[in-house]
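Appendix C reproduces, verbatim, an entry submitted by the partner laboratory led by Prof. M.T., so that reviewers can inspect both the input and the predicted structure.
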Amino acid sequence: MKNKRLVVTVCVLTAAALAFAYVRAQVLPEARPAAPPPQNVRTVAAFNSSGLPSLAGLVNEAKPSIVNISTTAVIRGPGGQGPMMGPNNPFKDFFGDDFFDKFFGNGGRREYKQRSLGSGFVIDKEGYILTNNHVVEKATTIKVKLSDEKEYDAKIIGRDPKTDIALIKIDVKQSLPVAVLGDSEVLQVGDWVVAIGNPFGLEHTVTAGIVSAKSRIIGAGPYDQFIQTDASINPGNSGGPLLNLKGEVVGINTAIVSGGQGIGFAIPINVAKDMLSQLKTRGKVARGWLGVVIQKMTPEIAKSFGLKESEGALVADVMDQSPADKAGIKRGDVIISYNGKKIKDNETLPRLVAATEIGAKAKIVLIRDKKQMEVSVVIGELQEEGLRASKKTEIEKDLGLVVQDITAEIAKHLNLKDKKGVIVTDVIPGSPAQEADIRSGDVIRAIGRKPVRSVAEFKEAVKRSNVKEGIVMLIQRENATFYAVIRE
């Protein structure tokens, strides 16, 4: 009987122990033994010697590949001695610089050496370093200091002002520690990041924060898609790496908001990776060219075109003999897909086209007259900045336009080849036309997608339109055309 009770007691205790272990494993997951990381996943130490959470392991591993960049540039500016020559010369506005150059030689405008600091990181053991273009573009001398305090002269291998990326090189005999480049595409808002650089000349300063936003457009260039972070970025951080918690570079610290706190911007590392080969071999970046002027698709324009969604890039103009022209793309088309990638807004298309190989065929899906169609375009090479999309159209109240027929004198004065249409001679202040950025001298070519060739046709078209829903006008300004919406 005793033996039977003993067996029952042991069974109960065993069952209780197993139940406790199960509950503890579910409620207290930290008690579980840590699973080994996948073999292909890069890891760094997440705890210090005391067992406390720390980024020290990540920082110590990344630091050797991060460099300090100091540059010297020669600039010309007001100079000389005495009150007549300084930058606060009270007579300069009256006489101009030429006056002082004539009577004082070059004393009125002297050459100065301007020194600045930046950061960078080694991407190749042979001494190739990534940084910002604005750190080195005007430099006459570039000095790079490694983490071991050794200093080297650097030369520019290639640079791209449009994305503010530069590749420089130092000549070294030994192999250098190299930063590991990550994948900025998988970065998510809320991910932890670490910035390392030389703010205000304070070498290897470390700050940490999170990704606040992605694909930010701040007006720095035509291909903006910045990573926004609250990891502190200050002057001197430019060109330094933004790291994820695996110690991989996911961005290049680039810009700050003057007077702001907790707002910094970094170029996604994938942008740099896509152009590294060209920077090394050509010293510059060749970009794809489509040859269209695009603008934002607003709800009002979408409705007038009979579209349910205000997505896509609206073609406001097509350049003669451009790839788009040869492919049959027309003004008023709405591009909704490029090589299988959805075009959500007008900022997406230029980046995709620019990244396309020169001479490659691209499949474009567009909407024309409410019908979807596909065209194939052979991408050309962008030689220079073409025409840009118009400014934003602000849709408010009232109409407020004064127009007249295009006379021979007006056409000659404005160098207009096509005399069809009406010209805006006045815009009433505070009217929706002014809010829509319509100006005196603009030529109205169409209303509601129907051509306008005279004041009579203009009046008739406006009469047929519903001002409350918005009147869509095709505007020509100098050599560019764009759509504007006037709403009462």
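The two ends are 98 Å apart (CA to CA). Additional entries are available on request from the coordinating office.
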